[in-house]
């Protein structure tokens, strides 16, 4: 991949991006080259050979950049670039930024003299940054031949800051831009958001999401069939320049989202070819969407190198609009819609019949509690479908994989309820020994719900924008085997729900909570044997009318 040096994390917008090279010019690291940049870290105070190597790399990169944009921008569309530069005729040694680069280099050499770093480390380091002249940029634009230069100006940024320069602020800005550690920082709080455990550690979702993987595998055959039978790819892309746009809502951190997207791409492409495609292969755009608190760094670091699609991240809740009108051809969501937008308010009201004292979910609670959950699910599902109705083109599809159970089966028979009850039991044990307060348990409810086909059908009909092409109850155990690994189930639950428990009870009790639950494995296994086993996964395929 291209070298990547992220800005220090935080809240900000960066328009100065085209001054970064795709790579450092190779000649700068070759001791036999006239452009070997010994004892320097940039071109501003170096030889003409070094400066020429930087110039050549910039022009090469700029051509790649403009050629790519030429394919992506519609005729008549525009591009606006804001970048560091200098007027024609001004020598690169006169650049103000060069003073800062030289100071950094001087500091590095001081550290060499003190034995903190090696001189060879300085000799092999060069900042991949370049400030171009109008002439250099014009030459590249004319060589590409796809764009006209409507305006090009040299501006003085100091006109907005005054004549005095705050050197301390400049150095801080330089550190923020060049430190390259990509430290993450989140400010503010959105609507309830409980991301899966990020990274790839012991309790990460990446390491503990095999059940979702099998859920995807179980649904694969049905998804393939419904796309092949019901999706008219050729008519959908007639007005979209051969682009087919897919969104995976609630993508989490992978790798399951990548398997699902690859499968959909292959089926759509195959359908397109069977329809007598004459205009070449499709350009696939895949939008990976989840809450802003999702670990998108891990997600994008794991993108398959051989992928045949353009990837983009879209942060935000799917309980609301995420995309422009009629911009998507297919929406996929797997094991995400069971998460409610919030806990039903009645559950926390001591005066309400739905107060859920001593419980953390609805599966073994009163009908009033279950009804409150059902009402919240239906409200959320309407918001979800209304938003997707705006975003999906007529004839486009939604494929949903969500925990569910058949009509007529009582909620107390749900296998997941066994796990919730075990977690609740562990919490009450901890309350009894003073590790947490009982009031903390009474005020905590998991905002997750498993729906029935009837409940989902009612919402779809009420919305009136989608036809139900297929709806099936599947058994994910068919891909896992009849025996259930309780330890893996608890690990899976921790990967998916640790964040919500942490926010309510505190990080210091999480190991204790799940450790106590692991001790209940035999009890959990026995309870699972008597729970409902013949289908706990709903697969729904809808078509936009």
TrEMBL record:
Keywords attached to this entry: Magnesium, Metal-binding, Methyltransferase, Transferase
InterPro entries, per database record: MeTrfase_7 (IPR005299), MeTrfase_capping (IPR042086), SAM-dependent_MTases_sf (IPR029063)
Alphabetical list of SUPFAM superfamilies matching this protein: S-adenosyl-L-methionine-dependent methyltransferases (SSF53335)
Pfam families: Methyltransf_7
GO molecular function: metal ion binding; methyltransferase activity
GO biological process terms held by the UniProt record: methylation
Protein family per UniProt: Belongs to the methyltransferase superfamily. Type-7 methyltransferase family.
Name of protein: Uncharacterized protein
Organism expressing this protein natively: Escallonia herrerae
